[in-house]
């Protein structure tokens, strides 16, 4: 699909409102009783009124966070994120993207010199398993190592408010805003709140917006065709022979003739399929030929989103 065709069949949703009910604070966000709090200092809540509070800290611990409002204010909840081993693929598109983003973070003074906010937007699109998530995971890992933060967007209006609060407390911290499956976010909340987040009065400095989608044709042109929202719209294709060779070499540590066999028999495989092949053969003890055959059937049976009404049963559970 040509990029110019994106959004041509999409009805404008600019009038859609972010109407979903705010999520109620979970019990994990609230102490079980007042006795659970250790009051140690005072915070003013008016010209002559004070509230006892527990210990405070000047910065959030590095990591990925979700945000949601509560009766105490905006809650920033650190996520426990675990991922598979991250592999860099030299001279690949993913490696060039990661290098480009690393360079972006060093250019704050140049952006400031020309009167621009130091921000950038990337939208990655492509079929499931093509490696979009692997790129995002690498960017996330890199920014956390640098002491930055990642905010996962579950609802644009909440993130919009949270960023304004966050910048009052930490004005200089590097931030990545992550919009995974951005088409689903638009479907649920409309594009008005998303555009407000990207373009509104709460825009912040030192921020990188990263979005992913399997279905770019669902996105309105106002989201994908305007610079300073998502400046780089990039297709991430399935891993080629060279990338799969690096992947299997790192995972398997096998001889060249066996490595060539794995690469030859996985043409068109996604990263997820390559990982499943390693697990099936090496971790579960299945025959290589049988595992390849099952995965090929699985990939062919759902080759596009329109094929998901197929009632046939395929895969390891057949």
Q: What does this protein structure show overall?
A:
There is one protein chain. The chain is of the alpha/beta class. Helix content is 36%, strand content 15%. It has a seven-stranded mixed β-sheet with strand order 4-3-6-7-8-5-9. It has a two-stranded antiparallel ribbon with strand order 1-2. The C terminus is likely disordered.
Poorly predicted residue ranges = 11-17, 19-34, 307-318
Mean pLDDT: 84
Q: What is the element string, with H for helices and E for strands?
A: EEEEHHEHEHEHHEHEHHHH
Q: State the helix count.
A: 11
Q: Radius of gyration in whole Å, from Cα?
A: 23 Å
Instruction: Tell me the number of strands.
Output: 9
Bulk shape = elongated
For the biggest sheet, the summary is: 7 strands, mixed
Which strand order does the major sheet show? Answer: 4-3-6-7-8-5-9
